[in-house]
Design brief:
The protein has one helix and 33 strands. The longest helix has 12 residues. The protein has a five-stranded antiparallel beta sheet. Helices cover 3% and strands 54% of the residues. Strand 12 and strand 13 form a beta hairpin.
Length: 418
Amino acid sequence: MRWMLALAALAAAGCDSTPCADAVRLTACPECGPGEVSGGLSVEGTGETRAVVRPGGGIARLGCESHLLRYDADFAVAGDVGLYIQGASPRLQEATAADVVLVVDWPRDGVSGSDLVAVAASGTEYWRISTSAHPIWLTSAGDAVIAYGRSAEAISFGEFTVQGLFAVAVGATDGQPRWAWSWPQGALSTITAAGLADGSVVVAGLFDGGLELGGTSAPLDTGATAGFVGVLDHDGAGVWARQLVGPADSSVRWISVAPDGAIALAGSYSGGSLDLDSVVLRPEAEFADQFVAVLEPDGTPRWGMNLGDGMTEKIQAITATDAAVVVGGWYADGPLSFGGTGEPDDFDAYIASLSTGGIDWMVPIGGAGNQSIAGLGWNGALHASIEQYAAEGGPSASLDFRDNALEGDGALFIQFVP
């Protein structure tokens, strides 16, 4: 299928570090409604295609030669500093409430350990932590930063040793380890996380067998792989945990915390129905169903819905706004099953805004070659990172979206009307 070839091309494109051109500001749509462009940037060339939102408005992105660029709410350059990068693939993670940008310097060989880096607005590194863990990610949680991932081997962070799925809190300005949680898991397990302002962190993913967050949370146990979600408090103790109940196999891939503390999650399930207590989802897709759900801060389901096929309409990012959950990804092998009639060229991108179990608006984004959503963010404005690259063996990619064109490989960093 075309989507399988496109995935291989996407993996290859992410390894290229060819220099890129300067950013060009996008043309905003005057007095337009939801889903229209209200600002942004266009960047030609390969490289990091995901920007992160800044707390005061605007975005931060990695530019040519590993320069960390900060833009204000009007997309004027507010800072430009060079990063010290040892690996071949630095990955932006988040900007904290203090506008400290978190970066994971992934290894050149894609296998060995990573450097975890916190960069101040001045360009000074607050800290750099070398770890043998890979892959590993970072999320901001109050005055701490949470490093999370999975390791088959025991690894150390200061006085703490973790193995399996893990989350480790370090000081946001000093990088000193504060607490650690881990639980042994197999190679099928996954983890994602989102920090809260009070220092607690939501963790979610897929587990196989048993899983315990500790504290006051109930142990989880299943005879098959299943999705999970739970909260660790500011000291690393479990507050609550819940597994996604089958008979379907399930996983949680993406989470985001809304301004009101609600937890948005997206994932997939197959082989039967999915029980979220007050919400039961039933299979609709040909291969594997995708779902989006919102939980109250205590884990009680608020609403849930199916959203397309998890193999051909894949969600790649999620963000929770003041009033909605926005997801984005790519689709191939036919029109979107949840809206739109256009046929994708190789594979195209989409963004959908959801609330109370329904679609408020949906925007397909496509042209020649491949387009996909590399990231979403909310800082009072809705931001999307859209990557574009040529299909393997195909002609150059091109896109003309809302009077904004991108020729060849590159990225659009768009601020949307929410």
